[in-house]
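--- STAGE predict ---
source: upstream dedup step, 1 unique chain passed
mode: sequence only
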Amino acid sequence: MKLHTFLNYGGNCAEAFRFYERHLGGKITSMMTRADAPNPGDVAPGWAKSIQYASMNLGETELMGADVPPDRFQPMRSAYLSLTVSSTDEAERIYALLSDGGQIFMPMEETFFALRFAMLRDKFGTSWMILHPRPQGA
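--- STAGE serialize ---
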């Protein structure tokens, strides 16, 4: 069994995936617009360039996504993508990138379980936890 994460976007899936690829080291493996789908004649006006399906490898995870009509899109709530990094500098770098234009729920700080930890929602509506854990036994 394998569990994947599928994210809906309100019309900016391509922009989000390209941002994650460029800044988080992901690799887009697939990106299909609705115009490229098997039944392009069924596409609603103005939606031809929207993303029907996208996937990327991000760390050891496959992330998938698509655009949904803006009236159906809602930013993530009560679920987070948890990104574990190996250094304080990397945690701070990613926090700065993802928090720019987003909403901070918990600012980057040291905690009893992490050298750095933060919770935020990025400008694309995706909620993230960024974690640089304390070494075991420290």
